[in-house]
């Protein structure tokens, strides 16, 4: 068995984007170092995948306050892994 078969798939449209991220402008890239800062700043929008250990966007921010928290999470991300797709 290939040891990499256990890894979750990567979104082919955005090669650095984990497939678990919900559609929308914000996502966590494969640069995630599993520090958990994102969930501390915007707890309702992130979830943790256990293998390989990384975070992903489980829900896009819905309120101005959540958008502000998401932007703070981007700034505080140790791996610079939280991305925003500009339209």
Low-pLDDT segments, ≥5 res: 1-6
How much β-strand is present in the residues?
Answer: 15-25%
Q: How does the overall form come out from the CA principal axes?
A: globular
Mean pLDDT: 86
Structural class: alpha+beta
Domain count: the total is: 1
Topology as a string of helices (H) and strands (E): EHEEHE
Q: What is the CATH architecture assignment?
A: 2-Layer Sandwich
* CATH topology-level fold name: Alpha-Beta Plaits
Question: Taking strands numbered 1, 2, ... along the chain, how are they ordered across the largest sheet?
Answer: 1-4
Helix content: 10-25%
Separation of the first and last Cα atoms? 41 Å
**Total count of strands:** 4
Write the layout of secondary structure elements.
Elements: E1 26-28, H1 37-41, E2 46-50, E3 53-57, H2 64-76, E4 82-84
Antiparallel strand pairs: 1-4, 2-3
List keywords for this structure.
87 residues, disordered N terminus, alpha+beta, two-stranded antiparallel ribbon, Alpha-Beta Plaits, globular
Question: Would you summarize the structure shown here?
Answer:
This is 4Fe-4S ferredoxin-type domain-containing protein. The protein is of the alpha+beta class and about 90 residues long. It has two helices and four strands.
Describe the structure.
The structure is a single chain. The chain has 87 residues and is of the alpha+beta class. Helices cover 21% and strands 18% of the residues. The protein has one domain (3-84): Alpha-Beta Plaits (2-Layer Sandwich). The strands form two sheets. The protein has a two-stranded antiparallel sheet with strand order 1-4. The chain is globular, with a radius of gyration of 13 Å. The protein starts with 25 loop residues before the first strand and ends with a strand.
């Amino acid at each position: 068995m290939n040891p990499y078969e256990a890894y979750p798939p990567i979104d082919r449209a955005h090669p650095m984007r984990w497939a678990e991220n919900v559609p929308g402008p914000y996502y966590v890239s494969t640069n995630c170092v599993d520090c958990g800062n994102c969930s501390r700043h915007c707890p309702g929008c992130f979830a943790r995948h256990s293998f390989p250990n990384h975070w992903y966007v489980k829900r896009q921010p819905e309120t101005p306050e959540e958008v502000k928290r998401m932007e703070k999470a981007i700034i505080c991300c140790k791996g610079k892994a939280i991305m925003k797709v500009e339209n």
